[in-house]
């Protein structure tokens, strides 16, 4: 055994899992202004005005839409950023995760 580690312990931890991807979903509501949703999509998901408007309208019409797909830690951070920003502006906008 190399690296000064115990063989069994090394073996038990030597099975790396593929980093699973998570969709960040935006949910529709009746109160959040369309312009606010577009601003959020531009700020936190690096969309341009055209992309952000398309995604916002999709969510408005269909109820839910995908903002992006990321490794878990990044997806969780995006959800927290969106939720913090919505709360700070007193909008009920909801954002969540779903395994891709
Ligand atoms: N339905 C909202 C309105 O009519 C707009 C909206 C779109 C809200 C997307 C949330 O995720 C959302 N003002």
Summarize the structure in words:
With about 100 residues, the chain is of the alpha+beta class. Helices cover about 50% and strands about 20% of the residues. The chain has four helices and three strands. A three-stranded antiparallel β-sheet has the order 2-1-3. It starts with 6 loop residues before the first helix and ends with a strand. The N terminus is likely disordered. L-tyrosinamide binds next to strand 1, helix 2 and helix 3. It comes from Novosphingobium ovatum.
Summarize this structure as a short list of keywords or feature phrases:
100 residues, alpha+beta, 3-stranded antiparallel beta sheet, 3 strands, 21% strand, elongated, disordered N terminus, binds L-tyrosinamide, peptidase activity, hydrolase, ATP-dependent Clp protease adapter protein ClpS
What can be said about this structure in brief?
Helix content is 50%, strand content 21%.
Write the layout of secondary structure elements.
Blueprint: H1 7-13, E1 21-27, H2 34-45, H3 49-62, E2 64-71, H4 72-88, E3 94-99
Antiparallel strand pairs: 1-2, 1-3
Residues 26-30, 32-34, 37, 56, 59-60, 93 line the site of L-tyrosinamide.
